[in-house]
Every structure is written in C-alpha cells, then in structure tokens.
Design brief:
- Strands 7, 12, 14, 15 and 16 form a five-stranded antiparallel beta sheet that branches.
- The protein has helices spanning 3-6, 19-39, 53-64, 76-88, 92-123, 125-141, 151-162, 170-190, 193-209, 218-226, 230-255, 268-271, 290-303, 308-322, 326-344, 355-359, 364-373, 381-388, 400-420, and strands at 67-68, 422-423, 429-432, 437-440, 448-452, 455-459, 471-478, 480-482, 491-493, 496-498, 509-511, 514-519, 523-526, 533-542, 552-556, 560-563.
- α4 crosses α5 and α10 packs antiparallel against α15.
- A hairpin with an 8-residue loop joins β8 (480-482) and β9 (491-493).
- It is an alpha+beta fold and 565 residues long.
- It is built from 19 helices and 16 strands.
- The longest helix has 32 residues, at 92-123.
- The protein has two domains: 3-255 and 285-422, no CATH class; 429-563, Immunoglobulins (Immunoglobulin-like, Sandwich).
C-alpha cells in the first residue's frame, strides 16, 4: 500500500511525494530556527546586523515616497522592502517584524524546497531529500565544532544572518541563487527554453539585489557550455541582460556615473586628463589577495575543529558530481569555488569577526551540495539512486505564465520605478560616515533647545514606540566648518555637507557631528567647549544587546541651533 493512501485526505498535496517528506522537514526547520532565535541574545526583533541594513531599508522607505537616494547598494532588495517600509515607516526598527516574517515564512521554505529540487536533479529524489536534510542540519551540527571562544560569533552573529533574521541582502541573495541553480539543472534535463529564460530572470534580479552575485554568472554559463546547449545559453543571457541594464540605470540616476567604468579608485586617470577605461573601476570590487585567503584559512584552523576534512570533502564532492555529468558538476563547483576565490581573498572577509561567513553566504548552498555528494563516490550508488527514485518529468509549458509574471515583477515594474522616481534633492537622508549607515532625517523628533547660563538644554519627542529597546544619541558640531573629505571646496553646515549633484544624480549628503552622550530620556544638557554657534541633532539608536555604549544611529533629527555668542 502506498504511503499516500494511509494519510488523511485533508493533508492535500502533503499526502504525496515530495511534500510528505518536505513538509515535516520544513516544520523541523521552523522549530529549530525558532529555538535558535529565542535562545541567542537579541533585542526584541533586533538581532546582530553587522552590515548595510540601513542602506537597504532606508532606500526602500524612500522608494515608497517616490524618492531615490544615492545608489550605494543594489536596488533589488529595497524594491522588495518598499511595501513593508511604506506601511511601517522610515525607521528600520518598525519594519523588522515584516522583514523577518518575509524571510522566515516565505524565503526560508523556498530555500529548503530549492535544495531538494537541486539534489533531485543531480541524483534522484532520495538524494534530493538527503540534500534538504543536510541543508537543515549543517548550520546546527557545526555549532560544537567551533571552539568555545568563537561560539558567540558563530551562534549569535552568523546563524541569525544565515536564517534571515536581518534586513541585509545576503540571505535573499542565497535563496535566489538556489532557485536559479535549480532552474539551470532542470533546463539541462528538459532541454527546453523556458527553464533557461526563467533562470536568467532570477539571476538578473539576484544581481540587482546584490551586484556581487555577478560571481554566480560563471556557474550557469559553464554548465550550458559544457552541455553544448547554445540556445539555452542565449536565452539565459538575454534574460539576464535586463537586470544588468536596470542596475546601470540605478547607478546612473543615483550616482550620476558608473563606478565600474570610473577611472580607478584613486582617480589617477582623471588626474592625468585621460579618458575612462572600460572596467577601470573593477579594483573597487575585486581584489584577489591570496595572502589574505591564507590568513583566513589559518584563522579557521584556529577556531574550527579541523580544516583538512573540510578541504577533502569539498574536493571529494566535486569528484562525485563529475560522475553524474560534467555540466551539472560545473554548475555546483564553479558556484562554490568562484565565491571562495573572489570573496575569500577580499580584505573585507575575515574569519576573526565572522564577516567571512556573511560574504560567502550566497555560496553556502553549493558547499552543502558538495558535502551531500560525497556518498556518490560509492561505485554505482548514484546510478542506482537515480534509477530507483527518479525525479518526475518536468513540463516546461507550465513555466510560461511564471515567466511573464517574473518579467513583469523584476523588469517592467522596476523599470517604471527607476525611470520615473524623483532623485533626492534635499536632506531627506544622510550618510553617517562614522558608522557607514544611511540615516533618514525625521521631523518626528520635534527637537527644541534653550540656553541657560551657557548650558544647552535639549528636549525632543520619541519617534519610535515599538518593542525594540532604543536610546538616543546627542550629536554636536560647530555651525560651520570645513568638510573633512574636501576642506578646500566644501563647508559643513548644521552638521551636514552635501556633494555637488552631477548629471542629475541624487543629492549625496553626509553627516559630520561628534557623538556626545547616550541617554534613554527625551532630554539632555550640554555645555559647549567655547562660545559661538553650535548645532545639535538627536539620533535614535539601537543594537542587538540593547547597550547604549554601542549601536548604529538609525534615525536622526533636524538640527537645533544654539547661539552662545
């Protein structure tokens, strides 16, 4: 008797494969993630961030008001966050519940199902289940393999980001690449154009979410070339192109230039009066420092149980997948090793502060697949698994409607947004260079200030009343002083300096104010160091430990001027 006949009818599709296996796995994953997020240190909805979360959310908030800030990050994830930010408000703390639920209830299951789909296309349904189980288990199994002094950095900093407990773009990038890899493998099996076209749309949007996902491009290209699927390669490339062109439009309107084609990070060509060279700015994004990769390897050896087995498993997984076919092996192997080389050699990726794991997160699925493939080295095992439990034959025609929807949501609608949205022409948001954050300027503080015996008395209202524990940071600066980044040409006024708008780009404003103190009250006093005119701003700040001595400023008030002349 079939298992489906024993299950109650009200389970619907969960009575049949693969859902009668994936359904319980998904429940187990949710329970494990809930257990993790309840036990690690956090501040209500706020977990360790450690990245550019304010850039993504503030950009989404400005999109909801039909404004465009400077294009420092990809437009794709802010575009997804726009409805959440439009409803919740411009401070990222208000949008955290919506973002975390989006990641946990939608993207997390897509990742699990996608890993099953990839595994099933590699070696049958049983291998698909095995891949899904490892995808669920590996992050938790690795916990005791790290030394105790690294426990906090892995469990409290890395795992919450791995499961989407932040507004960063790394987790959605990872899920998008899982979906894209599945579609490429399905295209290799069906030989149809639909899967290749849909894969191109997904990869193009992944590039818009995080431009560093361009590293993944080499993997599907290698797979199609080795399989000699030239028509599929053309269809894939043609549908990746719109996502890339939209990033060009985004950068042009947000920055007034294309950083990739700029005259290098040091401006040498421009200083010599020479024309820009194609891809002259690639050094901003790719810097292969092999010595740094060796340092990361040494640090991993210091904090992890053993590094040799990891190296062996990664190589053995490649050999095992080669037994299933060169094209499919190339997809997974190039996916992992391309990220390892480009990101692992970057000076920004360090094992010591766990940034290495966040930057390589989009390649984590490929690493798990290499681990899962090791048993396929057993002679005849992979062929037997594929023969006994083959994946059902796919119907490419069923993808015609999803292709239309995907093209509309990731190409047509973003084109309308990016082409018609108004660029920022005032100080709606400012870049806080001290903390590398993009901070909205909010009048919800309603700040005020008075003078009494040379003391500035400041008061304000609470702009956020949610469950996350917050505090306020008092910022001060002289009314006017030279811009630290260009003292000969620009002046900082009221604590903010705005760059000259070039080619119709968004106004790029930077905050230069000294942090004086932190308080949970809605008032503060300060005695300026000298007579003169001083400007004060109040910043709303928070962090995962609810510690006033640390944390990013997430919202800043308009300036309050105090005249002590």
């Amino acid at each position: 008797m079939q298992l489906a006949e024993k299950l109650p009818p009200w389970l619907g599709p969960f009575r049949r494969e693969p859902w009668n296996v994936l359904g319980p796995l998904l429940l187990i994953q949710w329970v494990a993630v809930v257990g993790l997020v309840l036990t690690v240190r956090h501040n209500s909805w706020l977990y360790y961030q450690g990245g550019d979360q304010t850039y993504y959310y503030t950009t989404g908030s400005m999109f909801s008001h039909w404004r465009m800030p400077t294009a420092e990050v990809g437009w794709g994830w802010p575009y997804v966050l726009t409805p959440i930010a439009g409803i919740a408000g411009n401070v990222v703390l208000s949008g955290l519940p919506g973002v975390l639920l989006l990641n946990g209830l939608i993207l997390l299951p897509i990742g699990l199902v996608g890993m099953y789909g990839i595994g099933s296309r590699l070696a049958g349904r049983v291998f698909g289940y095995w891949s899904a189980v490892l995808w669920l288990a590996v992050p938790f199994v690795a916990i005791p393999l790290f030394v105790q002094r690294y426990h906090g950095k892995y469990v409290e900093q890395t795992l919450p980001q791995t499961f989407g407990m932040t507004p960063l773009a790394d987790f959605p990038s990872m899920v998008l690449l899982i979906v894209a890899a599945y579609l490429v493998l399905r295209a290799l099996d069906t030989r149809a154009w639909q899967e290749a076209v849909l894969a191109g749309l997904v990869v193009g949007f992944a590039f818009a979410v995080k431009p560093s996902n361009v590293i993944f491009f080499a993997a599907p290209i290698a797979a199609f070339v080795l399989a000699r699927r030239w028509r599929q390669l053309v269809g894939f490339g043609a549908t990746v192109l719109p996502g890339m062109l939209l990033v060009v439009l985004w950068k042009q309107r947000g920055l007034g230039s294309q950083p990739l084609f700029a005259s290098g990070g040091d401006g040498t060509l421009a200083a010599l009066g020479l024309p820009p060279v194609p891809l002259a700015g690639i050094g901003r994004y790719v810097h292969l420092n092999w010595q740094h990769l060796q340092e990361n390897k040494d640090e991993l050896r210091e904090f992890f149980w053993a590094i040799r087995p990891l190296q062996w498993l990664a190589i053995a997984g490649v050999l095992a997948l080669l037994r299933r076919g060169w094209a499919k092996a190339a997809l997974v192997s190039v996916w992992f090793y391309a990220f390892l080389v480009v990101k692992g050699t970057s000076d920004q990726a360090r094992i010591e502060d766990a940034s290495f794991f966040r930057l390589l997160m989009p390649a984590f699925p490929a690493f798990v697949l290499l681990l899962a493939a090791v048993p396929l080295l057993v002679p005849k095992l992979s062929a037997r698994l594929s023969a006994l439990w083959p994946v059902p034959r796919a119907n490419p025609e069923r993808l015609n409607r999803p292709i239309i929807w995907m093209a509309a949501l990731t190409c047509a609608l973003p084109l309308l947004l990016l082409a018609t949205v108004r660029v920022q022409d005032s100080q709606r948001s400012v870049v806080n260079d001290a903390q590398h954050t993009l901070v909205p300027v909010s009048s919800a503080f309603h700040p005020s200030g008075t003078i009494s015996n040379g003391v500035a008395n400041l008061s304000w209202q609470a702009p956020y009343r949610g469950s996350v524990g917050t505090f306020y940071v008092v910022l001060r600066a002289p009314h006017k002083f030279p811009d630290p980044s260009n003292p000969e040409k620009r002046i900082v006024k009221r604590g903010v300096s705005c760059r000259e708008q070039k080619n119709g780009a968004s106004k790029d404003c930077h905050l230069y104010m000294r942090r004086l103190s932190a308080t949970r009250a809605v008032s503060a006093t300060d005695r300026p160091p000298a007579k003169g005119v001083w400007d004060y701003r109040i910043g709303l700040a928070a962090n995962w430990l609810n510690d006033p001595t640390r944390g990013d400023v997430l919202l800043v008030s308009p300036a309050v001027t105090i005249d002590l002349r």
